[in-house]
Amino acid sequence: MAHHRIALNMKGVPYKTIWVDYCDIEPLSLKLDAPPSTTRAGAPLYTLPLIQDPSTGATVVDSFAIAKYLDATYPGGITLVPEGTDAFQTMFIDVLPSLLTQHLLLLHITRIAPSLNPHSEDYFRRAREMHFGNPLAEIAPVSTHEALWKQAFEGFSHVHGWLNANGECKVFFMGHKPSWADVALVSVLAWLRIYNGRESREWKELMTADEGRWARLWGAMEKYVHRDGGEALP
Amino acid sequence: MAHHRIALNMKGVPYKTIWVDYCDIEPLSLKLDAPPSTTRAGAPLYTLPLIQDPSTGATVVDSFAIAKYLDATYPGGITLVPEGTDAFQTMFIDVLPSLLTQHLLLLHITRIAPSLNPHSEDYFRRAREMHFGNPLAEIAPVSTHEALWKQAFEGFSHVHGWLNANGECKVFFMGHKPSWADVALVSVLAWLRIYNGRESREWKELMTADEGRWARLWGAMEKYVHRDGGEALP
């Protein structure tokens, strides 16, 4: 579940999603005059998400930059990156893979590929197989799933420990107000729910874990996680 | 260099330091009716730092709790833990050892022991030897120092990367105002300077690294790092 769409929903900014195959990202970026977000082996690398705002003419690439753009351009309502927290929010996004998302990526990897359209599935499969040096089905065989789920579960508990510093009854990373760190956490929850379903053991375990913290966060943020047109998650 | 003394200096709260040997921490805590900060093997564990505030009668244990107490009791001036940042500050303190301080602890370990008084040196030596399962001199032999310094140096650069999210000309973790995360970073800098000296290769390398970030942070915070009575560091 993409951060930038949750952010747009939190901001209440209407938008239309256009799905782009991996191989079309560079041509589209060049057509829209969007800058590369980074480089790979010295060459410019064009990435999604990318937003184009018809009300200002701006094209913005990279989900954190999009969040900052939305705060600056649509200052009403929720502030995604409250003043003075840029480095903290960046740090959290940086540590999240080793704590949580790398375990969940492996756990879901064989389910992600067939959920893409054929062009993108092929690209995803080849890129991951090159990265891990293994056929997709062998990157994380079923025998590893229990351990991966345990590691992800411990990652959630670790974050719960940090959030306990806020004291009782605080739902969000910054206490009473949602911010970018909550977008990141809720997109992990949404991702887990999409690939496992609300009736799965994984979802049920998480919703009762860590003194109900994730159930409360989901309850507060689910309304921002709908797809285009307000469609609810499975 | 202890976080709580930098915090007291930032708050401008006058204080007197009493040095306590490891073996005297528990009896002193019991005498002052100070709570244990945690447990070890089921038994209460009494730790330093501990402050006793004669103006309120409060006894507070644990450096983060001391910071929160100082903000609540002396709200003027610098706020150590700005509202909404408790979890972020806690996360930073939690990730700092794996990035930075565990490498520096090993690098300095044979220099720390003889800087303590004999009772504490003996306790420190035994505790570390038990933890690492090696005589103190063999925990991090000189042949490992170059690699340890490189790891610490990379840890600083990693934090620099997060701080770059604040944009240009921002000295502190939260931008224009110092907070608890800066206390943690500056106490690492002070520690490094105490054990290496201002003329050391390590200090000079760090002061020119990462686009001068650490030199600027030290410049802004050095005034809070003096010892009792305003004595400057070596």
Automatic annotation (TrEMBL), chains A, B:
Domain of life (superkingdom)? Eukaryota
PROSITE patterns from the xrefs?
GST_NTER
Q: Where is the GST N-terminal domain?
A: 1-78
Extract the InterPro entries matched here.
Answer: Glutathione-S-Trfase_C_sf, Glutathione_S-Trfase_N, GST_UstS-like_C, Thioredoxin-like_sf
Extent of the signal sequence: none
Task: State the protein's name.
Answer: GST N-terminal domain-containing protein
The species is Hericium alpestre
